[in-house]
């Protein structure tokens, strides 16, 4: 009886989250993107269980076999299974995206919250720092940093991560500036709650929605950046596969023309993941903020 | 639902668009290819490839023969292994005591401005090259320091305003006087690629400081030399243009113009196929395989290049165990080098087993290290590098990412060493970061154990001597570890090797040195002085238009082998011919 | 208005200083021994400690970093960015040689991306949730999701080699006199590929911006007044939706330059991107610093310009 009542109440209460959820599920491309991404993530997470072969074990006699029963996407120059490498590469590429974005969104929340909440001089300094980093050509600095730190998965994450924060910082600050004057925040302040609590409990939750949207686009961008770095010899070093280094190692006309199973799968994987993440971001944006907002 | 299906279809369509980029187009040429004439033809434009050039104004730093400058600048000799090709000199004599090299210059050589090339220019060119004002203060090669007075001159010492050891005897004879005899002097100095001949009569009218600092406009507007082509224009990042020099001493060259075009290799292959380039002088085997089917392209393979890939253990790491020959032999046994040559090099390479393998100096009873993983493990166990110990080693394979084949080589070794139980990683190092690694400032500190590099006897078989019996560091491992032990300090054969080098240096004739070299090679073979693994064939791609290339030359690894006779290249235009 | 402009200019000054500090910090914090790069490791081995010290001293590598910053800044502000480690050109001369091609490429790519992206965005917004929306959305995102190096090689393979409609690379046909058509012919492939990504960005941006304005009161009012839909869209919604793009577009210049690194390298387009990549490879810090400084200052100036322009066309800004 009680349970039924609660369930009934839940159904009746139309929370903003619920409305957003409904709008998101109506966004067909977003749902499709979510589906595809879930599959990609599941494959990546479960790679050791799902993969039919080892991603690094070489079998030189299996030189570039086209797709067949044993090797669904064929084998590469060293006789390694392309399908296996593809899903292991997903682990690397997706985690580069997630971690890099995680790094800069964290920086953004900290700086944006401080700037937005305290205002005045602190705000001025942080916002000028944002302006400075925003004017600097990101890609050149990332390349410079990775070339100094040495190419590795963690350095790619780090370099992308420490260059991406200005835009979300602005976003967080802007949101906080408007939230700060909201009634419930003013009320909390007059109740004498400590500042960090106000920021944590009352202000930040309002910032999360736009930040999540921004982050999805960021993840897609970071995956592409990693691919670009691989092309320049600054990506994840072999034999660890990433979608980027699988594609860039196939950058010869011979492979392009005659061994398509070496570049089509990672190419499609990059496209699918970037597309799905963008669709999800789009759907989230439409769902969370029907007025639309700035994009990157 | 319908819309979802549509979206799915769109995904698939996009995937297909990607795939559609790869149509296979192998239609054979409809008509039989015309045979090119055998005689040199005159006229036409030769398009030559160069991956990149720093594009600086400062050609002075290029006062050495490279693929770009060799069209206009020449040197006294080209060196080949054990011999030489005379260029601006016709030959040389060595005095009985080995201290005086008398070089006879070619007569009738003219600079591009019509002035004669004489002994004055030779002395001037060397003194310009070693001018004390040149920054950075380049360290001298051991062979250069042998020249009497050169070191003092380079140091800018009081009163040393010339190199006393370079003496003009007459207009066409120059003497090089040495302080000590050195069989390496000819291949390492006189015939080395760093001394192109400059026009004294032009340069002495210019501001010497600007010339030396590299800021002089001379290097931009019109450097001249004696080569078959004269400089026209350099557009940074795009091309260098040369025009034919009709009075070239070797006879009038064929093509009227030469363009040295800069492009990355992937782009260059397409340019070659489109006819925008005539020669890509160093191509990956991967592309050669594909272009073998193209009737308009010739794939040239030079197997006789005396350079190869090495992967050398850091002797200082691993408790000194890497110094044990058996450890190095094990590393050779662990790698399927033939499989690599087949798969990655597409057969265009060769497995080597010793330093002089494939040369006349090869050990007569060469031991071959075939692929045998179990044997490798047994050897390592035998010297105390047991499985549990191996798990503690961090082997870092450092390799330059610009060369895909070499990266693949590291990938192959990675697998081999992982099989042995080592912790292994591939570290991509751009050439400029090399210094960091060696100084222990790289991500791995001093813990890097292997470097993959390109080395070999080249044209100078003596090049190994300072590393074996001297105290010269091989240069492939960190600098901040103790560097006071060398091959000759731990090798059981060090004494014998030193003795052999002594015998080699006592002979002036290379034929007489040969048996000693062969004995030496047996030691190198057994001790695996540096594991020398893969000999890479030199692959060049050229258009059918380009004629007159002689590949049968045994030349250095320092410059494109086929450029020895590029003055003889000519362009044949089959379409123009048939009209 | 004047007050607003002065205010904006004043704010730009500390930003400019910030840029120079960052640029210099990158240099000062970078590991690696420029001297070793210059001389070669083996050469340094054979030098005595005094020789190495003397070389460092003469190249100014020994001073503390803040002193070098002040020295560098006071020279940089006068346009003297120093010499690269090798080569007789000054950094300024090198930048002057390379900035032209880069600006040409970037400007073309920028215009192309707007011409492609904005209409896509408008279509997406007007036909929201229709099949056209989905089709264009997928197209727009496809542009965002192919790595540019792959697009470049693929395009070169298809359009240069197989179809033979575009030259492979470079600024112009080498050996022939300059002609405008020839330059455009060479410009098309690299600029379109560089533009592809940004077209996707603009499409997405325009779409959301349009959707936002279409729901605003004045648009609704305009509709209510019975204006034809096309007039509403063009005169009211579009204008107001595109205004904020001035700012976003000016901020994208830095990203365009970043994207040009790979494009310029593959297409042998002798601009700042290619120079920057070579400078990274060769550890030519002075060149790299020069490029970052020039690029950032350009972005800063264009932001300033965009803000002022924006204030001119949209008076509300001035009073905020």
Automatic annotation (TrEMBL), chain A:
Keywords noted in UniProt: Cell membrane, Membrane, Transmembrane, Transmembrane helix, Transport
Membrane topology: Multi-pass membrane protein
GO biological process: transmembrane transport
Residue ranges annotated for the ABC transmembrane type-1 domain, each copy included: 90-281
Record field: transmembrane: 29-51, 94-118, 130-149, 211-238, 259-280
InterPro entries for this protein: BP-dependent_transpt_permease (IPR050366), MetI-like (IPR000515), MetI-like_sf (IPR035906), Oligopeptide_permease_AppC (IPR053523), OppC_N (IPR025966)
Gene Ontology annotations for the cellular component aspect, listed alphabetically: plasma membrane
Source superkingdom: Bacteria
Compartment(s) where it occurs, according to its Swiss-Prot or TrEMBL record: Cell membrane
Principal subcellular localization: membrane
Pfam family, one: OppC_N
Entry similarity comment: Belongs to the binding-protein-dependent transport system permease family.
Protein name per UniProt: ABC transporter permease
UniProtKB/TrEMBL annotation, chain C:
Predominant location: membrane
Keywords, ordered alphabetically: Cell membrane, Membrane, Transmembrane, Transmembrane helix, Transport
Domain ABC transmembrane type-1: 99-310
GO cellular component, one term: plasma membrane
Subcellular location as annotated: Cell membrane
Transmembrane segments: 9-30, 103-126, 138-159, 187-205, 242-267, 287-313
Entry-linked PROSITE patterns: ABC_TM1 (PS50928)
Topology in membrane: Multi-pass membrane protein
InterPro entries: BPD_transp_1_N, MetI-like, MetI-like_sf
Pfam families the record matches: BPD_transp_1 (PF00528), BPD_transp_1_N (PF19300)
GO terms, biological process: transmembrane transport
PANTHER family named in the record: DIPEPTIDE TRANSPORT SYSTEM PERMEASE PROTEIN DPPB-RELATED
Family under the similarity heading: Belongs to the binding-protein-dependent transport system permease family.
Protein name as annotated: ABC transporter permease
Natural source organism: Caldilineaceae bacterium SB0664_bin_27
């Amino acid at each position: 009886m009680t349970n039924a009542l609660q369930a009934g109440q839940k159904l009746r209460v139309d929370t903003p989250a619920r409305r957003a959820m409904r709008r998101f599920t109506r966004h067909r491309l977003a749902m499709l993107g979510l589906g595809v991404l879930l599959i990609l993530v599941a494959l990546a997470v479960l790679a050791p269980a799902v993969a039919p072969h080892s991603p690094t074990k070489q079998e030189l006699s299996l030189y570039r076999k086209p797709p067949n029963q044993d090797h669904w996407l064929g084998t590469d120059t060293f006789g390694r299974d392309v399908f296996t490498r593809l899903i292991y590469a997903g682990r690397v590429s997706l985690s580069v995206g997630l971690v890099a974005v995680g790094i800069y969104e964290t920086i953004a929340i900290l700086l944006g919250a401080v700037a937005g909440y305290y205002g005045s001089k602190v705000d001025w300094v942080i916002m000028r720092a944002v302006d400075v980093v925003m004017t600097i050509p990101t890609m050149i600095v990332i390349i410079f940093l990775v070339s100094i730190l040495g190419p590795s998965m963690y350095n790619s994450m780090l370099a992308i991560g420490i260059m991406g924060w200005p835009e979300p910082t602005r976003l967080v600050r802007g949101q906080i500036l408007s939230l700060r004057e909201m009634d419930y925040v003013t009320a909390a302040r007059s109740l004498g709650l400590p500042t960090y609590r106000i920021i944590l409990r009352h202000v930040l939750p309002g910032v999360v929605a736009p930040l999540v949207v921004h982050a999805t686009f960021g993840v897609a961008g970071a995956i592409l950046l990693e691919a670009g770095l691989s092309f320049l010899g600054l990506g994840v070093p072999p034999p660890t596969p990433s979608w980027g280094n699988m594609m860039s190692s196939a950058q010869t006309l011979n492979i392009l023309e005659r061994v398509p199973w070496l570049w089509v799968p990672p190419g499609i994987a990059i496209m699918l993941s970037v597309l799905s993440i963008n669709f999800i971001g789009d759907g989230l944006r439409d769902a969370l903020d029907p007025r639309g907002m700035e994009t990157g | 639902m319908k819309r979802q299906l549509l979206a799915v279809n769109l995904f698939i369509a996009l995937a297909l668009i990607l795939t559609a980029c790869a149509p296979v187009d192998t239609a054979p040429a409809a008509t039989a290819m015309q045979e090119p004439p055998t005689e040199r033809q005159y006229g036409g434009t030769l398009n030559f490839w160069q991956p990149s050039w720093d594009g600086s104004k400062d050609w002075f730093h290029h006062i050495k023969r490279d693929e770009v400058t060799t069209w206009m600048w020449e040197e006294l000799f080209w060196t080949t292994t054990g011999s030489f090709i005379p260029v601006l000199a016709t030959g040389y004599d060595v005095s009985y005591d080995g201290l005086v090299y008398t070089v006879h210059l070619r007569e009738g050589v003219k600079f591009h401005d019509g002035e004669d090339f004489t002994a004055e220019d030779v002395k001037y060119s060397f003194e310009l090259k070693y001018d004390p004002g040149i920054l950075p203060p380049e360290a001298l090669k051991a062979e250069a320091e042998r020249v009497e007075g050169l070191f003092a001159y380079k140091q800018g010492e009081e009163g040393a305003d010339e190199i006393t050891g370079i003496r003009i005897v007459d207009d066409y004879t120059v003497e090089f006087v040495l302080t000590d005899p050195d069989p390496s002097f000819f291949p390492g100095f006189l015939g080395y690629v760093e001394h192109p001949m400059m026009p004294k009569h032009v340069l002495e009218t210019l501001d010497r400081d600007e010339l030396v600092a590299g800021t002089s406009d001379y290097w931009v507007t019109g450097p001249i030399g004696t080569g078959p082509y004269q400089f026209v224009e350099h557009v940074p990042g795009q091309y260098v243009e040369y025009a034919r020099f009709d009075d070239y001493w070797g006879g009038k060259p064929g093509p009227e113009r030469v363009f040295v075009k800069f492009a990355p290799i992937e782009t260059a292959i397409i340019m070659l196929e489109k006819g925008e380039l005539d020669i890509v002088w160093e191509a990956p085997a991967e592309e050669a395989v594909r272009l073998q089917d193209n009737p308009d392209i010739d794939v040239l393979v030079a197997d006789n290049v005396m350079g190869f890939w090495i992967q050398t253990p850091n002797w200082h790491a691993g408790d000194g165990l890497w110094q044990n020959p058996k450890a190095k032999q094990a590393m050779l046994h662990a790698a399927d080098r033939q499989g690599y040559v087949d798969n990655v090099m597409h057969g265009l390479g060769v497995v080597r087993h010793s330093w002089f393998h494939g040369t006349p100096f090869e050990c007569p009873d060469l031991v071959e290290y075939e692929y045998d993983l179990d044997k490798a493990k047994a050897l390592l166990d035998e010297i105390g590098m047991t499985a549990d110990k191996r798990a503690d080693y961090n082997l870092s394979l450092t390799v330059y990412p610009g060369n895909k084949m070499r990266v693949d080589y590291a990938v192959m070794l990675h697998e081999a060493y992982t099989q042995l139980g080592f912790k292994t990683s591939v570290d991509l190092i751009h050439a400029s970061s090399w210094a960091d690694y060696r100084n222990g400032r790289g991500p791995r500190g001093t813990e890097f154990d292997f470097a993959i590099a390109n080395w070999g006897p080249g044209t100078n078989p003596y090049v190994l001597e300072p590393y074996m019996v001297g105290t010269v560091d091989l240069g492939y491992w960190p600098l901040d570890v103790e560097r006071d032990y060398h091959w000759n300090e731990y090798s059981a054969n060090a004494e014998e090797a030193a003795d052999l080098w002594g015998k080699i240096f006592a002979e002036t004739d290379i034929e007489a040195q040969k048996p000693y070299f062969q004995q030496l090679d047996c030691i190198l073979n057994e001790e695996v002085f540096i594991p020398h693994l893969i000999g890479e064939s030199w692959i060049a791609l050229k258009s059918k238009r380009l004629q007159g290339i002689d590949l049968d030359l045994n030349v250095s690894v320092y410059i494109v082998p086929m450029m020895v006779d590029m003055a003889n290249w000519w362009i044949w235009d089959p379409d123009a011919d048939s009209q | 208005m004047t007050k607003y402009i002065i205010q904006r200019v004043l704010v730009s000054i500390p930003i400019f200083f910030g840029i120079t500090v960052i640029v210099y910090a990158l240099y000062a914090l970078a590991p690696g021994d420029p001297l070793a790069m210059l001389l070669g490791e083996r050469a340094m081995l054979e030098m005595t400690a005094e020789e190495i010290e003397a070389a460092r001293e003469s190249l100014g590598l020994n001073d503390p970093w803040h002193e070098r910053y002040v020295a560098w800044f006071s020279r940089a502000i006068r346009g003297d960015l120093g010499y690269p480690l090798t080569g007789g050109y000054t950094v300024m001369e090198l930048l002057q040689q390379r900035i032209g091609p880069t600006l040409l490429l970037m400007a073309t790519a920028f215009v192309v991306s707007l011409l492609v992206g904005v209409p896509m965005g408008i279509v997406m917004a007007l036909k929201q949730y229709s099949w056209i929306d989905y089709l264009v959305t997928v197209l727009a995102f496809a542009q965002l999701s192919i790595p540019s190096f792959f697009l470049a090689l693929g395009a070169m393979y298809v359009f240069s080699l197989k179809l033979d409609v575009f030259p492979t690379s470079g600024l112009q046909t080498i050996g022939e006199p300059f002609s405008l058509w020839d330059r455009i012919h060479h410009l098309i492939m690299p600029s379109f590929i560089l533009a592809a990504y940004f077209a996707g960005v603009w499409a997405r941006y325009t779409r959301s911006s349009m959707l936002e304005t279409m729901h605003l009161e004045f648009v609704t009012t305009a509709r209510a007044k019975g204006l034809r839909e096309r007039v509403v869209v063009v005169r009211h919604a579009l204008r107001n939706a595109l205004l904020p793009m001035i700012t976003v577009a000016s901020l994208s210049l830095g990203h365009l330059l970043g994207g040009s690194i790979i494009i310029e390298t593959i297409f042998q387009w002798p601009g700042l991107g290619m120079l920057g990549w070579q400078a990274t490879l060769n550890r030519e810090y002075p060149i790299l610093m020069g490029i970052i400084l020039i690029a950032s200052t350009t972005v800063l100036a264009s932001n300033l310009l965009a803000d002022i322009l924006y204030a001119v066309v949209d008076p509300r800004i001035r009073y905020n």
